[in-house]
Specification:
about 450 residues; flat; 18 helices; single chain
């Protein structure tokens, strides 16, 4: 029988071997936690604070460790239970669910004093006095938004209850941002470092499909990390990308055009698709099935160019039209407004009012400043229904300036009104216009 690298006298070798296989590249952190926990009946450290970046294995390692070694525990996500009452009641409910005896009726828990009393009763009913109970609070940064006594009380719950209990806080931010001004019991702080590229290679390579060799899948993962590692080190996102693009990588092998060792042919086939996937890293603008369909058709995902359309959805309806109006005002000469926005403007040829400086494309010259009244006049022309110039419209203009989609120029002049420039690109505004079914190209002077 293979001997595990993890060693602890209180746990069988089979359980440690299974634990080691489930948490690759986190053996040192698991070994440290097991040393802190000690044996089941030992009093452990009252509170432990574990921090690290997103997808560094904090939650997974803690859940796997407690479940594999069958340690009594309660696991609560503080984002899901976002008030102190919900949080405290959920801990008590999970304690009741762990009990083999008949569950008691739900008891409300309004204060931490009530929680301490009910917690003692729950622990006594389950006969947990002879082993450590672990309360794990995931996304613990949410505790800072609760009452001021919640965090200090959890840190010294062992002292308040006089029970063998350890509170484990999992967070993405450092302990210094938690510490109250009035001071509190200091927890034991542990850091989970990011996975290195070697760790990611090892973890991702473990999920290879059975119909392909491990070396073939490892070569694919090496190519994937070569493209995405500098932009994305999130293990979950990389796992998603690996599953999503593997079928495209296998195409030459399936068609018989290459074997598993023709790395050059496989790379040439997958390279453009990985670069396209790079545009939507972390975004879920289309489903996996839609992406695979576009991969088969060699199409571009929603014809997204430059900035992703995911950003545009967050703008309110009239803010989108305000941004479109601002773009038209920045890149169209003033004299063309009559042509584009009046119904009975007569026939005006482009050459009749083209001056020397207008022969160059306005998009090459950059955005020009425009007054507020011109912006509003264009807005009223392009919106189908009537828009009342309320404070809401003006506040949305201010929001666009705050978001740096518009910039204010010459606002120090008290006599003239404010003047603005539109700072977004053509690709950005075209994507915005598509969301409100507005054909902006028809209204741009450079595209006549």
């Amino acid at each position: 029988m293979k001997m595990p690298n993890l060693e602890h006298p209180a746990y069988p070798a089979a359980a440690l071997l299974r634990l080691e296989s489930l948490v690759p590249c986190r053996e040192s952190q698991v070994s440290m936690l097991m040393s802190i926990f000690g044996e089941r009946q030992h009093f452990s450290f009252p509170s432990i604070f574990i921090y690290g970046h997103t997808s560094s294995g904090k939650t997974y390692v803690m859940q796997t460790l407690l479940n594999t070694l069958q340690l009594p525990h309660v696991f609560v996500n503080c984002v899901e239970y976002f008030t102190s009452r919900l949080l405290l009641e959920e801990i008590l409910i999970q304690l009741q669910n762990c009990s083999e005896t008949e569950q008691t009726s739900h008891v409300p828990c309004d204060t931490f004093n009530d929680f301490v009393r009910l917690f003692k009763q729950a622990v006594a009913r389950q006969e947990l006095q002879d082993q450590t109970l672990y309360i794990v609070l995931d996304r613990a940064e949410q505790l800072r938004e609760m009452e001021a006594n919640i965090l200090p009380a959890f840190l010294r719950l062992q002292e308040l209850t006089d029970r063998n209990v350890t509170v484990v806080l999992l967070s993405e931010i450092v302990w210094e941002l938690f510490r109250p001004n009035i001071g509190c019991f200091e927890p034991l702080v542990l850091y989970f470092p990011d996975y290195s590229i070697g760790h990611l290679q090892k973890i991702l390579s473990q999920n290879h499909p059975p119909e392909y060799s491990a070396d073939f899948y490892a070569a694919y993962i090496n190519i994937l990390l070569g493209v995405f590692y500098m932009a994305c080190r999130d293990l979950k996102e990389l796992q998603h990308l690996a599953v999503l693009n593997f079928s495209k990588y296998c195409e030459p092998v399936v068609r018989g055009e290459a074997n598993e060792r023709d790395t050059r042919k496989l790379w040439k086939n997958i390279e453009p698709h990985l670069k396209r996937a790079m545009q939507t890293v972390y975004l879920r603008e289309i489903s996996s099935s839609q992406w695979e369909h576009l991969q088969r058709d060699d199409g571009e995902p929603l014809q997204l160019k430059g900035l992703s359309a995911h950003t545009h959805v967050e703008l309110p309806y009239y803010s989108k039209f305000l941004l479109i109006a601002a773009y038209l005002a920045s890149y169209n000469p003033v004299r063309t407004d009559k042509r584009f926005f009046l119904k009975h403007h007569g026939k005006i040829r482009k050459t009749n009012f083209m001056k020397k400086h207008e022969k160059t494309s306005n998009h090459l010259l950059g955005p020009k400043p425009f007054p507020l009244d011109r912006l509003l006049a264009i807005l009223y022309s392009i919106v189908d229904n009537r828009v009342v110039p309320t404070a809401n419209i003006f506040s949305q203009i201010t929001s666009l300036v705050t978001l740096q989609l518009l910039s204010m120029v010459g606002h120090n002049d008290q006599l003239d009104g404010p003047r603005y420039k539109c700072t977004v690109s053509l690709d950005f505004i075209r994507a915005i216009a598509r969301t409100v079914n507005f054909d902006i190209i028809k209204y741009l002077y450079d595209f006549l």
